[in-house]
Amino acid sequence: MKRTMTLFIALAIALSMITTAFAGNLTVATDTNFPPFEFKDPKTGEHTGFDVELWAAIAKEIGVQYDLQPMAFKGIVPGLQSAQLDAGIAGMSITDKRKEVIDFSDGYYNSGLLLLVKADETAIKDIKTLDGKVIATKQGTTSVEFLKENANPKEVKLFPNDNAMFMELLTGGVDAVMFDKPVVESFVSKRGKGEVKIVGDLYAGQPYGIGFPKGSELVGKVNAALKTLKANGTYNALYKKWFGVEPR
Ligand code: GLN
After folding, report:
1. CATH 3.40.190.10 region(s) of the chain?
2. Within 10 Å of residue 169's Cβ, how many Cβ atoms?
3. What are the CA-CA distances from residue 126 to residues 19, 61, 236 (Å)?
4. Mutate to test the pocket of ligand 1, among 37, 47, 73, 99 (most ligand atoms within 8 A of CB)
5. Strands 39-40 and 47-48
6. What separation in Å is there between the alpha carbon of 113 and the centre of ligand 1?
7. Which residue's alpha carbon is nearest to atom 10 within ligand 1?
8. CATH number of 2-108+209-243
9. How many other CB atoms are found less than 10 A from the CB of residue 173?
């Protein structure tokens, strides 16, 4: 009887350790589609990209297990705010407004916003020439705020993902797209080649940061890991792999 009891207790302890290990997995959100930062690799069906691999390197550095959860971008800040997510790496711009509700790591990529039009567009030259025009961008992103504050378009059409937004420009449903520089540049050099062009300046220069619930103890650890990865060449190698150039 005593032996059975000891065995039972040992089993219970082992089980509880397993469940804690699983419960210990962090839930880390990423955008469904924000290439080359995150996108589904058609060959493997898995998410990959700069953000995905940078997070993998950070997690290894600080010794945490995690589940990657791709989701619509607009759900990430609310998910962090309610602490349903432990971290979010999704080309997320560090803004004062977001800093009121979530914490950010140090910046890990310098970005900004660009204006994209059809190759034969002549009237739209920059942010000041959008009066009466219809512009597309993605829900919950910094472009929405920027357009509200700096332009006077007839309408801003909001899309849940990048693909739909770019398609709308190609099919003539909107006059321009405003969105993040690396994603626009990637579209111009690949799928939109010859059909679209960038006009105006680089607007709203902002770094991307990794988001956390307010007060998360991960912030300090992730910042230390970022410093290590920059110093030991891992960050540089990932940057070159995904953007084809040295970090700038
Ligand atoms: N950088 C933009 C933002 O933070 C867009 C990010 C995204 O669409 N993944 O709002």
Report:
1. 2-108+209-243, 111-206
2. 22
3. 55, 43, 33
4. 73
5. antiparallel
6. 10
7. 141
8. 3.40.190.10
9. 13
**197 contacts: CB under 8 Å, gap ≥ 6:** 116, 117, 118, 119, 121, 188
Tens digit of pLDDT per residue, the chain (248 long)? Answer: 455 555 544 544 444 444 444 457 999 999 999 999 999 999 999 999 999 999 999 999 999 999 999 999 999 999 999 999 999 999 999 999 999 999 999 999 999 999 999 999 999 999 999 999 999 999 999 999 999 999 999 999 999 988 899 999 999 999 999 999 999 999 999 989 999 999 999 999 989 999 999 999 999 999 999 999 999 999 999 999 999 888 87
Judged by phi (left if over 0) then psi (alpha if -120 to 50, else beta), residue 146 lies in alpha
> Residue 188 carries which side chain, given as an amino acid letter?
V
| Domain at 111-206, CATH homologous superfamily | Periplasmic binding protein-like II (3.40.190.10)
Of all atoms in ligand 1, which is nearest to the CA of residue 38?
9
